[in-house]
């Protein structure tokens, strides 16, 4: 495993010199993997090199942001992070049975909850000497973005969410269980790829393009089923609704028009709760607008950030 990268100075001089990415180890023992890409003019002062951190949704990986990097990295230091239990990031061993989602005991007393998820993001930024970021969260990572912006306004330049709910309703959790006893048990039984294959049978969930879907399934398979199952238990208890009223940072909502998991009414409701927020409705076949309508999403992001007088 590569040594921790604790300063941005070296990778900013030589972007793309570490295709395998970087790692940080948190005080709780967990390890977070990330990629760092930047083609910002190297002679600019640090305050003119804003950092944007891309956080993927459930059962995705940092690699799935690949198509966003070329356009964003010319203007921003782009960090793509594997969430806890996903991709190359670590996860704690579960001691409770998967059938018990109320008593969630993990090795070393690890608390797989929102406070820990936010702490690990902040700790990563601290280790990289990053004071403030543009937080972009896709799907359920956007819920963490709601909490991050509300809890750490001094660390938040702007918040952007993409296909993001405020909680997962019982109907969605039942759908994600793909006809098994529970969502995490479905993941353990079928594995990360097998679970995604079954979910794809529901219209408006995964992309329709068969070639892209096959690549997505191969990427999903890189996440170990135990890591994904632990993460989905965390998601079943997560709600960002209490945080919305405290979001004061500039906020852009990228809203899918045809998502089964996040109806357009949900995105519009979020916009109504956050004063001054901006919503852009993105037409696409289903939920995955970050991959099925990439350029339209990036256009909206760059326009939004330009309105904040960021040099684009």
UniProtKB/TrEMBL annotation:
Pfam families: Abhydrolase_1. Signal peptide: none annotated. Gene3D superfamilies: alpha/beta hydrolase. Residues 50-292 form the AB hydrolase-1 domain. This is AB hydrolase-1 domain-containing protein. It comes from Cylindrodendrum hubeiense.
């Amino acid at each position: 495993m590569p040594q921790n990268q604790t300063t941005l100075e070296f990778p900013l001089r030589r972007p793309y010199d570490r295709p395998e990415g970087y790692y940080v180890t948190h005080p709780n023992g967990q390890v977070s993997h990330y990629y760092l890409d930047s083609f910002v003019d190297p002679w600019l002062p640090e305050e003119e090199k804003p950092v944007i951190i891309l956080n993927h949704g459930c059962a995705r990986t940092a690699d799935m942001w690949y198509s966003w990097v070329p356009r964003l990295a010319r203007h921003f230091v782009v960090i793509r992070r594997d969430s806890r239990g996903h991709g190359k990031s670590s996860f704690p061993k579960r001691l409770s049975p998967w059938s018990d989602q109320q008593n969630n005991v993990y090795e070393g007393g690890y608390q797989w909850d929102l406070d820990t998820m936010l702490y690990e993001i902040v700790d990563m930024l601290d280790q990289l000497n990053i004071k403030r970021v543009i937080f972009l969260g896709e799907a359920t990572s956007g819920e963490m973005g709601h909490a991050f912006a509300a809890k750490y306004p001094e660390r938040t330049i702007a918040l952007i969410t993409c296909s993001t709910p405020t909680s997962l309703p019982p109907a969605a959790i039942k759908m994600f269980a793909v006809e098994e006893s529970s969502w995490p048990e479905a993941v353990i039984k079928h594995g990360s790829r097998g679970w995604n294959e079954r979910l794809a049978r529901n219209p408006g969930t995964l992309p329709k393009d068969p070639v892209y879907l096959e690549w997505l399934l191969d990427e999903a398979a890189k996440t170990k089923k135990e890591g994904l199952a632990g993460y989905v238990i965390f998601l079943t208890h997560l709600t960002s609704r209490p945080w919305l009223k405290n979001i004061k940072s500039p906020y852009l909502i990228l809203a899918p028009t045809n998502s089964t998991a996040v109806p357009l009414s949900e995105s519009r409701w979020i916009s109504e709760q956050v004063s001054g927020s901006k919503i852009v409705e993105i037409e696409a076949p289903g939920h995955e607008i970050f991959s099925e309508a990439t350029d339209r999403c990036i256009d909206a992001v760059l326009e939004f950030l330009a309105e904040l007088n960021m040099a684009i």
